[in-house]
């Protein structure tokens, strides 16, 4: 692994960079698991509201079926050099029961309102309990920037 030029960031810098990416990026990899069927991973659009990640998918998707059995989830931003992983428990909201501000923000970001679709959709909310962030091997130490829902300093 090439590490030339990587400057190790402090926790506050990693937190700021992570929050910037959560606010700006569009896609997140969602990893769920089912006790009988095993792991499942898909990319979904997401919205960061400052405290939680919001996603939306079909109510009949494998992701939603898995989350109803096992709500623990891992999310990953799609960059293998600037890694951001979030872990938490998912809450599922049928599209007609989602808080209005979350649905409106999702619609504003993506120009899509699942509440108006014919098929049933579910909004998934994940409040991170753990966040890891690192750029290359020099940042592996100290990569946990949130533990038990608290940002590390």
TrEMBL record:
Keyword field contains Oxidoreductase: yes
SUPFAM superfamilies linked: FMN-binding split barrel
Full protein name: Pyridoxamine 5'-phosphate oxidase family protein
Assigned keywords, A-Z: Oxidoreductase
Record domain Pyridoxamine 5'-phosphate oxidase N-terminal: where: 22-134
Keyword Secreted: no
């Amino acid at each position: 692994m090439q590490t030339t030029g990587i400057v190790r960031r402090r926790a506050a810098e990693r937190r700021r960079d992570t929050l910037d990416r959560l606010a700006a990026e569009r896609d997140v990899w969602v990893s769920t698991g089912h006790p009988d069927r095993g792991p499942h991973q898909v990319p979904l659009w997401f919205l960061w509201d400052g405290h939680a990640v919001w996603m939306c998918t079909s109510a009949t998707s494998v992701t939603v079926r898995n989350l109803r059995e096992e709500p623990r989830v891992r999310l990953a931003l799609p960059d293998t050099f600037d890694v951001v992983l979030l872990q938490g428990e998912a809450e599922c909201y049928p599209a007609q029961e989602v808080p209005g501000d979350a649905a409106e923000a999702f619609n504003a970001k993506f120009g899509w309102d699942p509440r108006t679709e014919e098929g049933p959709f579910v909004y998934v909310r994940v409040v991170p309990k753990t966040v890891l962030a690192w750029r290359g091997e020099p940042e592996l130490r100290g990569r946990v920037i949130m533990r038990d829902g608290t940002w590390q300093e």
